[in-house]
TrEMBL record:
Record GO terms (molecular function): DNA binding
Keywords: DNA-binding
Originating organism: Streptomyces liangshanensis
Pfam families noted in UniProt: TetR_C_34
DNA-binding as UniProt keyword: yes
Protein name per Swiss-Prot or TrEMBL: TetR family transcriptional regulator
Coiled coil (UniProt feature): none
InterPro entries with a match to the protein in the record: Homeodomain-like_sf, HTH_TetR, TetR_C_34
């Protein structure tokens, strides 16, 4: 039996412990799913007594929200690095870049469903504020990178594409990674799982259609999201 680690006392030790917990959560979610991840698995992976987790994360939601934050920022870095060579991309190339950089991180794709569903609302308001601040900054950075890599997209159109990419990726990831019950059902009725089980090609195709619509002559102008009132 592994001996529990000693309590982290310095700020550096605590930061390292949080990093270890996040890495463990990522590895477990990659092997199973975000839905199935349990805190006891995470603490066991780093040799930490379960009761000590509260010193680093107040809840499962806070742990997973921080994981979503770090993985989302990493996606922004990947996308901006891929598009940052100054070359103009076609619609098809932009759809491919969005899809490939998302698909490179399966756990992020899984988390995209859980963030608005339960994680953001499961933490205190200051943690939610911090998450939203970083998420919007990354969104604006990626929007600018997409617009700069295209002769047809403005920043507002790029924001629309990103909104579609994250919404679709979250939904399609869940569909393409069914529970055992649904997997058995798709084996019995293959036509029901035909589209659902092809995450990358489906996402890339739909994003290509979105980009085509946004760059077509006479397309509706994207709304100015900052000016819309809550309803």
């Amino acid at each position: 039996m592994e001996t529990p680690r000693q309590r982290a006392r310095s700020g550096e030790d605590k930061a390292r412990r949080r990093h270890d917990l996040l890495n463990a959560a990522y590895e477990i979610a990659a092997r199973t799913s975000v839905r199935e991840l349990m805190l006891s698995q995470v603490t066991a992976a780093v040799g930490l007594d379960p009761s000590a987790l509260r010193r680093y994360f107040s809840s499962r939601e806070e742990l997973l929200l921080e994981l979503a934050e770090t993985r989302g920022l990493a996606w922004a870095e990947r996308l901006c690095a891929e598009l940052g060579d100054g070359r103009r991309r076609t619609r098809e190339e932009l759809a491919h870049s969005l899809t490939s950089t998302l698909a490179a991180d399966p756990v992020l794709c899984d988390l995209l469903t859980h963030v608005p569903l339960s994680l953001e609302g499961g933490v205190d308001i200051e943690r939610a504020r911090s998450f939203k601040t970083k998420a919007f900054e990354a969104h604006h950075t990626m929007s600018r990178a997409l617009a700069d890599a295209s002769d047809e997209l403005g920043v507002m159109e790029a924001r629309t594409v990103l909104a579609a990419a994250t919404a679709l990726a979250g939904n399609l990831w869940q569909l393409s990674h069914p529970t055992p019950t649904l997997a058995a059902l798709y084996e019995q009725v293959p036509e029901w799982g035909h589209v659902a089980l092809h995450f990358g090609p489906t996402l890339e195709y739909i994003l290509g259609v979105v980009l085509l619509g946004l760059t077509a002559p006479g397309h509706p102008e994207p709304p100015d999201w900052s000016m819309l009132e809550s309803t």
